[in-house]
């Protein structure tokens, strides 16, 4: 599997179209939209605080993260 790592994220990625991977990509799009909206609506004095909060890592993935998905 490691030899085919170069395929990840490409059109030839055999796992790219599983329901789990599609859900992950949708979550990324949703999170990026949330970031844009937050930075647009947060007032200037709180912008740095909001940026720190939004920069916190999301470390769950696969079966571990699935229970936390909406």
Break the fold down into its secondary structure elements and pairings.
Elements: H1 19-41, H2 44-54, H3 62-65
Describe the model.
- The protein has helices at 19-41, 44-54, 62-65.
- The protein has 70 residues and is mainly α.
- It has a domain at 17-55.
- The mean pLDDT is 80.
- InterPro entries: DUF6537 (IPR046667).
Low-confidence stretches: none
Listing every helix as H and every strand as E from the N terminus to the C terminus, the arrangement reads HHH
Rg from Cα: 16 Å
Percent in strands: under 5%
Largest sheet: none
Write a brief structural summary.
With 70 residues, the chain is mostly helical. It is 54% helix and 0% strand. It has helices at 19-41, 44-54, 62-65.
Core attributes:
mainly alpha, 70 residues
């Amino acid at each position: 599997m490691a030899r085919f790592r170069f395929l990840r994220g490409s059109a030839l990625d055999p796992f790219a179209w599983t329901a789990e991977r599609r859900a992950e990509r949708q979550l990324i799009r949703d999170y990026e939209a949330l970031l844009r909206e937050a930075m647009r609506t947060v007032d200037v004095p709180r912008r740095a605080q909001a940026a720190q909060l939004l920069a916190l890592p999301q470390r769950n993935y696969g079966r571990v993260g699935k229970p936390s998905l909406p």
